[in-house]
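Why do we care about 3D structure at all? Because function follows from shape, and shape follows, mostly, from sequence. That is the central idea of this module. The next example makes it concrete: a single protein chain, its amino acid sequence, and then its structure expressed as tokens.
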Amino acid sequence: MPYTLRRILNSILLLLVTISFVFFAGRMIGDPALNMLGPGATPAALEKLRVVAGLNDPLWQQYLHYIGRLLTGDLGVSYRFGFSVIPALDLKELGQPVINIVLERLPATFFLAGSALVVAVPLGIFMGVTAAAHPRSIADRIVTALSLAGVSVVQFWLGLMLIVLFSVQLGWLPTGGYGGFQHVILPALTLAARPIGRIAQVTRSTMMDELAKPYIITAQAKGVQNHRIVYHHALKNAAIPIVTMIGDETSALLTGAILVEKIFAWPGVGLLIIDSLSRSDLPLIQASIAVVAALVIIVNLLVDFSYRYFKPEIILGRGR
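And the structure:
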């Protein structure tokens, strides 16, 4: 089986396993109808929901029905989003399709994660290359210290410290919310700290190994300019571990945005997951996690496919 097709099928299977786990876990924590409508719902409303949502059916029938609807793009209906108590009326009319709610929040999450990535990738690679090109120098020591701090810092603490310094003390930036460029600076910096450190560490390590290889020494002996050796030859040949790390950190940005969005009241999917958990909105929880899982899997697939550009022989070797 071709490598690309095998990776796609494995990714689909992984997504199915994740969705199935969330589905069965949601049924194991109590009565789904009571969890979705809350303790203030009337018995008539609870029974109405069980009939409309098929919660009276056997669990295996509920699961097959859920997967069937999922294949058509129907992720369910939220009966609590925007409502405090659902009366015993037509729940189908009161509910909102969860896919619409999630899609409304996705642009904010993409904007935040993309902003953090735009900061983290070039800065992390530049720091790592600079440290590798000047080993045991002051620049190398500074990069090592900063990358270690970025990996070790707690996002919750860093976010609060940035708010205290730049919002409360200096008054330069807003404390939170979703708006223009000023609103994204603090959450993006908070989210970018860890990937900057990890990308810088991996870039430094792989570049130092690459710069010690014979072809680099030969190029230096021939008088090739140092920046051309570093960026044109060594960096491309050292790209596989760096690209892998960027992919891992991109996935981590999508999942790590949950805490950062809560700190800065950023209206993305992360904050939506927290709100849906507090409301016990099972359909919305399932849909949000399914969308995030699908995005993470897509990012990992793109990283795998990028290997074809940097190291085609890796793809050929795996496809045998």
